[in-house]
Amino acid sequence: MNTSILGRGALTFLLLAASALAFAQSPTYSYIEGGAGFHDFESFDNWDREGYWAGFSVQLGDSFYVDGRAQRYSRDLFALVPTTPDDPDSEFVRRRVNSTRLEFVNVNLGYRLPIGRRTDLNIELGVDDRSARFRDEQDYRASVGVRSRLWGRFEGRAMLSYRDKERFRSGDYLLSVEGSYHFSSLFAATLQLETDEFDTNIARAGLRLMF
């Protein structure tokens, strides 16, 4: 009886270990993803714009990859306005008086260098296109960071970027971190956070389909 219990316990342990090893792979570089996003100015406690985003990554051989992301955030501004402007006794109603919209597109060419069994060094060069209601900007970006299949089903990434402005006369530093939980070899949930010198912050949550 005890031998049977021990045998079943050993078999269960081996199955769990095999499952963990199956997910203990190198980081993923070929996928599409998307979800909901939140945009904030100057603090992490006032997410004043909501939106959506979509991204992709494609592995090119053993050492290179291309990735990109498109994001769109908007905010409607409301005010109390009289139903009859010339009547001082008119009732007030809440109406939308303005709308702001932000759109970001980023495309990178990346190089991956394995620095461990499950960890890669990532180096990227990319282009950023940012547009608001009255202003459009196109900048260049250089990034360096690490991507790792930290443990089993969990994958993490951290990148430090420099985004050029005014033809290399000035620029911003960006820090981005993300974590992904792999439900299987095809599907994962991802949570991502990006800050532009803590002046502009973006949080993203979504799903990832790997191929």
Automatic annotation (TrEMBL):
It comes from the Bacteria. Residues 1-24 form the signal peptide. Residues 13-167 form the Outer membrane protein beta-barrel domain. InterPro entries: Beta-barrel_OMP. Pfam families: OMP_b-brl. Keywords: Signal. This is Outer membrane protein beta-barrel domain-containing protein. It comes from Wenzhouxiangella sediminis.
